[in-house]
Amino acid sequence: xxxxTFVQQQGExxxxxxxxxxxxxxxxxxxxxxxxxxxxGTSIQGTSLLGLQQAANAMRLNAEAFExxxxxxxxxxxxxxxxLHVVIDEKLEHYVILTALPSGAGAxxxxxxxxDPANGFETWSEEKLLSVWKSKAVLMLNPSxxxxxxxxxxxxxxxxxxxxxxxxxxxxxxxxxxxxxxAALGMAxxxxxxxxxxEILPKHQTQRLWLGIGLLAILLLARAGIGYLRGFFLLRQxxxxxxxxxxxxxxxxxxxxxxxxxTRKTGEIITRLNDTRRIQAVISYLTGNVVIDxxxxxxxxxxxxxxSVSIGCVALLSVPLFGxxxxxxxxxxxxxxxxxxxQYASTxxxxxxxxxxxxxxxxxNKESLFSAVGKSYYxxxxxxxxxxxxxxxxxxxxxxxxxxxxxxxxxSLSAYIVLQKDIKIGEMMxxxxxxxxxxxxxxxxxxxxxxLQEAKVAFERMYEFASIxxxxxxxxxxxxxxxxxxxxxxxxxxxxxxxxxxPITEKCxxxxxxx
Length: 515
Prior knowledge:
The two termini are 53 Å apart. Residues 104-112 and 485-515 have low confidence and may be disordered. A hairpin with a 3-residue loop joins strand 4 (114-116) and strand 5 (120-122). A 6-stranded antiparallel beta sheet has the order 1-6-2-3-4-5, covered by helices on one side. It contains 21 helices and 6 strands. By secondary structure, it is of the alpha+beta class.
C-alpha cells in the first residue's frame, strides 16, 4: 500500500473504519470516516467484522468475512490488502491491514507487511502475527464491477481551509513583511562590527564611530519596535482565527444528528475543539518563522560568499547535513508525535467521561475500577510523552553537535584565511556572526515537516467532523424565513422536514409551498 492511502485512526473506536477506508483508497475510491461509521454501526465500543463487511458491501466492494482454519491454504488464496481482527496485549481488540504475509518466524524481509491504523507501517514476523491473530478472523476485500473510483483530491478540504483563513490573509502578510524587515535589521550588528574592527578603530575615526553607534542604536530600537508590532499582529490573528474557527466548528457540531453524539465519547469531541490551537500555531509558524528563516538563509549565503567563496561553500554544507539528520529522525518523530496526540485524546476523553458520568459510577460502586483505568491511561500517555521527549532530546543533541562542528570549521577556516591576509579580522567576526544565524535557520527549516504533520493530523480530525451533513440546514431555514413570512410557524413538521434535506432553492421552496 502507498503511504498516501493510509488513514490514521482518530479515536479508539475508529480502527476498523480506518482500515476499511485505507483499503477503499488503495483501490481508487474514497469516503469519509463518519460515513463508514454510520454504515458499519460503529459505536463507542467500536464495530464488528460483520459491520465492516456490511459497510464494505455498501461501498460496492466484494467483502467476504471468514475464519482461517488452514494457514497454508490462506497463504495461497489470500488477496491483499485484507483486514485482520487481532487482540493486542491480550485485552485490546483491534483491526489491522495485512498487505503481505511474513516469511516465517523471525522474518525480517516482510517489510510493510502490517498496516496498523494506530502506529502506521510495521514489520511482523509470522510468530508475532499468530500471537495476536487469535480469532483467525479476516475480511477479504476486492472491488466489484460497480465500485466507484474517484480522484484522490483534497479540493474540498483546501476550499474549507481557504474560507477559514481568508480573513486572516492581510494580517498574516503584514506579519510576514515585518518579519522580513526584522531579519534584515538583524544583520546590522554583524556589518557594523566588521566596519568597526576593520576601518573605524584602526583609523581612529571618532566622528564616524559615534555616528555609527547612533545609527546602530536607532536600528536596534526600530527592530524592537517592529518586533513588538509583529507580535501584536500575530496575537490578534491568533485570537480572531481561533474564535472564528471555534464558532464555525461549534455551530456545526451542535447541528449534527443525535446519532453522531450517541457513537462518540464526550471527551473525544472536546479534544477536537482544542485542535484549533495546533492549526493556528502552525499557520503563524509558516507565515512568520519559515519566511524569515528562508530569507535569512538566502541573504546570509550571499553575504558570506561576498567575503569568501570557500567559507560560503562550507556554510552551505549545513543544508544537506541537516537534511540528512532530519531524514534519519523525521519518520520516528512523526510516529511518536501521533502516538502522543492519540493517547492524549484518549486520556482526556476518559477523564471527561468519568467526571460527567460520576453519578452512574457511584451508583454502581465502580470508583476503584475507573480510578485504575484512569491511572493506566495517564501512565501510558506519560510514557508516550517520555519516548517522544527522549527521541527529541537525542535529535537535539545531534543538532547541537552538527551546529557546533560547522561553526568550529567555519571559525578555523576564517582564522586561516585571516592569517593568509585574504580577509580582515572584522570580516571574520561578521562571517561567524552571520554563519551562526544561517545555520540556526537551516536547522529550524529542517524540522518544518514535523510541524506540518502535527497540524495535518489536527486538521484532518476537525475536518472529519466539519464535513458531516448537519441535521438542520441553516441555509434552508434562512430561505424559508425569507419567503415564508408569517406562515413559517404554521407548518412546523413540514418546515422541519425541509430543513433536514439537502440545500434547497427558493424555486424549490415555492413549489413545495404551493403544494
